[in-house]
Each structure stands twice: as C-alpha cells, then as structure tokens.
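Morning, I've got a small favour to ask if you have a moment. The fold is given in discrete form, as structure tokens running alongside the sequence. I'd be grateful if you could look everything over and explain what you see. No rush at all, and the record is pasted right below.
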Amino acid sequence: MTQGGPGRLGRALAATLLVCCLATAGCGGGEEGGAGSADDPPATLPPDPVAAYAKDVRRVIRLATEEAAKAGRHVNAAGSSDELAFAVGEFEAVMSVAAENYRGLEPPRELRNLNDRFIRLHQSYAEQTATTRGAIEQGDTKVVRGFQKASRTYASELGLLAQELDAAAAES
C-alpha cells in the first residue's frame, strides 16, 4: 500500500471505527431492566409496546457495539492490506447484521418509520464499508477520507435516531 502502508491506514480506520463504536454505545437511552420506581405501573399491566420496542433496539445496538469493537481491534492489528481488507469486511458484516436485526423487530405502528430509518442507516453504512474494503483490496488508500466522513455521518444520524426513540419512549 502507499502512503504509510496498512499500519497507518489501519490506525486511521481503527480510530474511525472506534468513534462509531462509542457513538453506537452511547445510543439507546436508559438502562434495560432496573429496579423500577414507585411511579412504575403494576407488573400486571400489559407491556408498553413503545418501551418493549425501545428495549429491543437497545439490544440490537448493544450487540452491534460489541461486535464492532471486535472488528475495530482486528482493523487496528492488521499487518497487511489483505488483513486490513478482511477486518474492514468484518465491520461491514456487523452493520449488515444490525440492519437485519432491525428488520426482524416489530415496532409499534407509530415507530415503523423510525425502524425503517435504522435499517436504511445501517445498510447504507455497510455499503460504504464495502466500498472501503474494495478500495483497500485495490490499493486505494485515498478512500479513507470518504469513509471517515461517512462514519461521522453514521454516528451523527444514529445519535439523532436514538434521541427520537428516547423521546417516543418517554412519551409512552
């Protein structure tokens, strides 16, 4: 590879993926479960569909974050262009699986559009990651700047979607 080899590129990509992991980990609102409070409804009431959906989204986010962190470590440890492309491919798979996991959720009617936006965001980021992987395989290191921009956009949009979900959960 040119411009510093896979080590430099790997570090740049790892830093980018770390930002995405941190953004993903920070999304999704409050804790799952918990002791509850005196204001909580009695356990005999049916579960709130918005709260149940929000809990499912947090689970998808948690799983994606854990797997993305593993892929990020592999990106950082890559010693060759082939290893780097493989590790970026792992991250691509994480985003694709997250999109499929969102697709498998059953959001309440009022949150179907939000769920569709979670799916599109992760599909789009997986596609950008695939483009980056392909460029690395071809020896094109200039693609990193575009990927860094796409990663910042992903993190920002994911944060906005999570805020929208938290607002819907708070209203329910």
The radius of gyration is 18 Å. Helices lie at 5-25, 49-77, 81-103, 112-137, 143-171.
